């Protein structure tokens, strides 16, 4: 699997981000599985709020972001939960992408919540991926009660760390899977054409 490249996108802008730490663990597991990896830290990208009237090439680092995602064999999206959904920095980043970046691509999902299990954020990310005709890994990683899930940058529970690492292994394992036929959502997603 040395030719597999896994790219993770961190939707958290916090300095002490549990999402970023978890994605780093995902990528460590992917590397152990033989993949090359990249972490896209959205703090390092200039991405104005999406405007459909503005060309991607004129929107800060949007074209660079899209190129990195196009070159990936598998993508892992990670986000904190804000108001029951995924974070706006990730939403903005993904709005600059379309079928060229996601169609037929394997995508893993990770969500982090300060409270209960972050089901809705995972569902929203999954729906977005299906609208772009990506193949979403059935295994997903969720970190609830994030304030107590890590201590000094390390996972407190081995079982949770293993679940996060499994996402990295699955990203490598399924990077070349034959995707499902396009979804109904994708067929109706005319805005994702020609990004």
Automatic annotation (TrEMBL):
<dbReference type="Pfam" id="PF03358">
    <property type="entry name" value="FMN_red"/>
</dbReference>
<dbReference type="InterPro" id="IPR005025">
    <property type="entry name" value="FMN_Rdtase-like_dom"/>
</dbReference>
<dbReference type="InterPro" id="IPR029039">
    <property type="entry name" value="Flavoprotein-like_sf"/>
</dbReference>
<dbReference type="GO" id="GO:0005829">
    <property type="term" value="C:cytosol"/>
</dbReference>
<protein>
    <submittedName>
        <fullName>NAD(P)H-dependent FMN reductase</fullName>
    </submittedName>
</protein>
<dbReference type="GO" id="GO:0016491">
    <property type="term" value="F:oxidoreductase activity"/>
</dbReference>
<dbReference type="GO" id="GO:0010181">
    <property type="term" value="F:FMN binding"/>
</dbReference>
<dbReference type="InterPro" id="IPR050712">
    <property type="entry name" value="NAD(P)H-dep_reductase"/>
</dbReference>
<feature type="domain" description="NADPH-dependent FMN reductase-like">
    <location>
        <begin position="5"/>
        <end position="147"/>
    </location>
</feature>
<comment type="similarity">
    <text>Belongs to the SsuE family. Isf subfamily.</text>
</comment>
